[in-house]
Design brief:
alpha/beta; Aconitase, domain 3; Aconitase, domain 4; 7-stranded mixed β-barrel; 5-stranded parallel β-sheet; 24 helices; binds iron/sulfur cluster
Amino acid sequence: RSFSSTSSNNTGVLPPRYETLYNKYSEVRRVLGSQRLTLAEKILYSHLDNVEESLLSNTNGGRDIRGKANLKLKPDRVNMQDASAQMALLQFMTCNLPQPVIPASIHCDHLIVGSKGADEDLKAGIATNNEVFDFLESAGKKYGIDFWPPGAGIIHQTVLENYAVPGLMMLGTDSHSPNAGGLTTITIGVGGADAVEALVGAPWELKAPKILGVRLTGKLNDWVSAKDVILHLTGRLTVRGGTGYIVEYFGPGVETLSLPGMATACNMGAEIGATTSIFPFTEASSRYLKATNREQADKDAKNFENFSKGSGQDSFFKFKADEGAQYDELIEIDLSKLEPHINGPFTPDLSIPLSEFKKTVQEQKWPEKLSAGLIGSCTNSSYEDMTRCESIVKAAEQAGIKPAADFYITPGSEGIRATLERDNTLQTFEKAGGIVLSNACGPCIGQWKRQDDIPKGTPNAILTSYNRNFRGRNDGNLETMNFLASPEIVTAMAYAGSTTFNPITDSLTTPDGKEFKFPTPKGLEGPETPFEAGREVFQVQSGTPNPNVEVAISPSSERLALLEPFETFPDSDLSGLRVLVKVTGKCTTDTISAAGPWLKYKGHLPNISENTLNTAVNAATGEVNVAYDLDGSKHTIPELAKQWKQRGQPWLVVAEHNYGEGSAREHAALQPRYLGARIIVTKSFARIHETNLKKQGVVPLTFANENDYDLIDAGDEVATVGLYEMLKNGGQGEVSLRVTKKDTGKVVEIKTKHAVSKDQAGFILAGSALNLLAKGN
Ligand code: SF4
């Protein structure tokens, strides 16, 4: 069939992406027949490199592949933020290709410190990071990758506004990339090595996810927002509950949500460890595409549905689940019964309904003074979010009340900033004393120089509309209790300056002694006229690749260093390894490779490795960032790792559950590998991190019996049994550890489990995925 629209209302030829999607989907249908599919499956399976091989790899095909088959996928594009793009591009450069085989973009958002306000902070940020931005810009020009300069916006907001269209599959080198699932894409957060695979055209491998259906009914009440859906869900599922799942929202309640609201819920799916999250294409999606000046994309999506309908029932691709599609798990949420939630501190799954928050604060003896309220970020800076906050600010202004806590606003992109400026929303915030930060991550990722100068170690409470709240994440102060809420709750509570204030039930007192109660927040889903593009200097630089451009890296740079390939796996099992440190408690990617001030070394592996595991808790002593050498001498963990690297002493780490939770940060895998780690043994891993380890040639093993964690300690000598054989057999076979106790010389055998696929076994044997890819080019 000619690939043109059959709709009576719309005409025209559909773009090539939909032709590919249609052809692949037809193949999926040929293999699966009339089996009912979820929306996530339709899009995901239509991006398989080899549909038949993947879908039939688990005998019965279809639903039975979930959680079992290894899918080999061909994503449509790759989006990279500046911190992770450095390593991704350094890796891409070693593959010697003239340009990526799929479109890609670079977003300069993570390196700007938020402090005094957008203009000043941006100038300072550019001066400090010029070298890195020059590198990224020159690499963008050389390889024809879109370059969004500092100040242009935060990756997920920019992607949502510019690149996300229904039916796409994207990879993003950031764990909150699933934000774009709000616009009916499959977007997965990955490390740089995965991004490089997609950029060079190698199929990208993913264990077929299970599907967790979230059926929404009802309609949100006045003070409740889509953020509360995910804050509530995070509490129900915990930080590990979504591991191995795609979260797919459906049901009548979906139709009541705004598009940015859906994106917010998808964004924070990362907090439950989900592979990604997705919403169907709704009228709100259509309105958002038009508001962001993409009327054609809206027409294309609708025409595509109509086109596929014309080809018969089996190939009818609607951007929602088939009637009767099965979910592996099902959760129902009645939006009408949901109340605002506040999650934290220190973990996003400690979810507390607003009505119980005051009691909890008092019982837990958390600080009652709120020192700062921060709204915006990639999670919550939509027009709707900001205008709802504006209505609260205006009401307080009229009553003569100012925020009692510091109040910061981070627009997600230049587009949203310029639109909010045009419509006077930002001016309202500033008039109230709010500080508008640059269109960048800032305090969300530890890039925050606080105005109140609270000394490190001082307990204090802050409330943000961000997505993540690990200890120390925002200001580097381990005693800052960081709570997450919707922007409207953050704003109202910033006015009260109190963690015990409930804006729905409580009142403030105006300067003239009157009682003031906040009105219910009211905002506009989108601007009445389409979004502004904003200032010229913040527009994207795109172009054709130019091989004559020199990629800018100074040999004396402290920020950037070309990569040396890692050594290959020996032709035998590993022996003579020592346990560098046995870690207890949470060990997130922030623990393994801290952000904040370390972000500046993202492109310099030796320098950033100085932070390796520097907030990990030693299981034997309870000390933070302490490891003991075999002679009993005390060191920081990275110091000892460096010494062992110099001595040629390979090592391993022992840890507890969900090791590597949090982000796609591949440095958390690269650094231990660079310093000499060969295996990591844990009670369980976070998905992205486990994959990242294998890509860098580190073997992730889990205890077959988790109590065996107690049998192995720091300093013990370890040899693997069966590991080499397993790798040679493409991931088939069992691996155990022979542990010789440091103190007694006693030998214990510990059984382990692994999830090494055939391809991953190849990476590990080659030394890293990159070694293998570089060989292929
Ligand atoms: Fe930036 Fe924070 Fe969003 Fe990550 S979660 S992209 S650090 S704003």
